[in-house]
Each structure stands twice: as structure tokens, then as C-alpha cells.
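Protein of interest.
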Amino acid sequence: MSEERLESALEMPLDLERLDDLRIIEALIFASPEPLSEQALREELDEGVEVLALLEELATQYSNRGIHLVSIDGKWAFRTAADLAPFLTKYKIVKKKLSRVAQETLAIIAYHQPVTRAEIEDVRGVQTSSGTLDVLLETGWIKMRGRRRAPGRPITYGTTDLFLDQFGLSKIDDLPGLNELKGAGLLDGTVPASFEVPSSQKLETLMDDEVSLEDEDEGEE
């Protein structure tokens, strides 16, 4: 056997293993009801498998198809291609339309997180009912992050991966910035100098002024 044919024969099992790993990753993501992290996928494969490289290869394979493999805050899921939305709208069922108050509250949470109910009210300038927060919690777009290190230990709220998925964002950093919001007519000139899009890296863990919800010694809101 020539040297070239020998090298080809030795490489073939590796190619087959890579294809098997691609198929396993594809099946796991397809079957999962929620986006999967690289770590979750890595636990299902042999040690040493380059999961990220396989995910990127799989994403490339699906890039020109009706279904895309997308990253959502570091987790992976299959989603229909954005340009096909007009063809799918007739199958969409709208269960409940958010009220203007709920939309405002959601926007405040997205841009000011972690934020308490009192802080939401300060931004809106009016009282926010607990019912509004309950509705947003039911959508799964926001969550209770922790408690503020302040009198009364008020609960802090933040957005979820489902929020990112719903609004087509890979990470919270992809929220429209100041110039984009102004260009769309959603902001006037009276914007605080400290305004900035929240950072996903900063939000990965509790802030210094937050404590865990599981800490029973911190009291009730």
C-alpha cells in the first residue's frame, strides 16, 4: 500500500468520528426544549472533542437553509431563518398582547438590570403594580435575580435567555444602543449621561450589591 493510501486509510476513522459527533450534537440540540450550552454537549461526547469547532461547522452547514443553528447567550438552538418570518406568520398564535405599561417595564428591566421594583418606578415616574411584574414573569422573559443589599432586601429583576430568543438577540449586549434608539424615535434628548447597554459579562453573576435568593438570613422583601 502506498504512503498516500495508508495516510488516507488512517484518516478515515477520524472523519467518521467527527461526522458521528456532528450528528450527535445535531440530534441533542434538535431534541432539547431549551438551548444547550457547550458544556452540556461536551458531557455527552468523548473527552477531547472540540465542541465549539463542531458547532460552528454545523452552523455553517445550516446557514443557507430554512433552519439556522444560532447562539443565544452562549447556548445553542435551532431557529427558523429570520427572512422566512413572513411565510410563517399565519401559523403564529398570539396568546396575549403586552400592555403599554408591561412593555415599558420590560424595557426598563432590560436596560437597567439588575433593577428593583422601586427603581423601575423611579424611571417610569409612576407606581408599578405587582401584577405587571407577574405578567412578565409568566412570559418567562424576566426572572428574579436576587435581593438588593438595602433595607427591606428588595428583589432584583433581570432578563432571561428566553427574552433574548424572543427578540432575536445573541446576548444582552446586542440591545439597540443610544444612537439606534434615538434614530428610531424611541428616545428624546433627555437621556442620562450614564446610559449604556448592559453587559452580559457583568450580569453572569450577582452584583456586589446583590445577595442570593436562597439566603434565608437576608429576610423578605
User: Anything to note?
Assistant: The chain has two domains: 3-81, 100-215. The radius of gyration is 22 Å. Strands lie at 36-37, 67-72, 75-80, 115-116, 142-148, 155-159, 210-211. The first helix runs from residue 3 to 31.
